[in-house]
Write a structure and sequence with these properties.
With 104 residues, the chain is of the alpha+beta class. The chain has two helices and four strands; from the N terminus they run E-E-H-E-E-H. 16% of the residues lie in helices and 35% in strands.
Length: 104
């Protein structure tokens, strides 16, 4: 059984909530089209993103591991590697975070 974590590591964010430990695990990201944005001209959105060194409308995909009462559960399963080449990192990041997927 995977023990509840007690430290932070780069790329993984943990937060204690009462008796639970919630760990955010990155699955990757998806770049989307600007034209889905509302109340802003596409040119203005592109300019704002470029000024912030962002190549596109980027959406991070995260999953969450919860350790509570000697149990481990996964909230959201990510999008796997079939949505974009920038996603599908969940399994490797679970391992990096010290979480055994078989314990979920």
């Amino acid at each position: 059984m995977t023990k509840a974590p007690t430290t932070q590591i780069p790329g993984v964010y943990r937060r204690k909530v009462g008796d639970m430990v919630v760990t955010a695990i990155a699955d990757g990201f998806l770049d989307g089209a600007i034209d889905v944005l509302r109340n802003i001209r596409p040119e203005d959105a592109t300019e704002i993103l470029a000024a912030s060194f962002r190549p596109a409308r980027r959406t991070p995909v995260n999953t969450f591991v919860i350790h509570a009462k000697d149990r481990v559960c996964l909230i959201e399963t990510g999008c796997g590697d079939y949505m974009a080449p920038t996603s599908g990192r969940q399994r490797a990041n679970l391992e990096a975070a010290g979480v055994d997927a078989d314990d979920i």
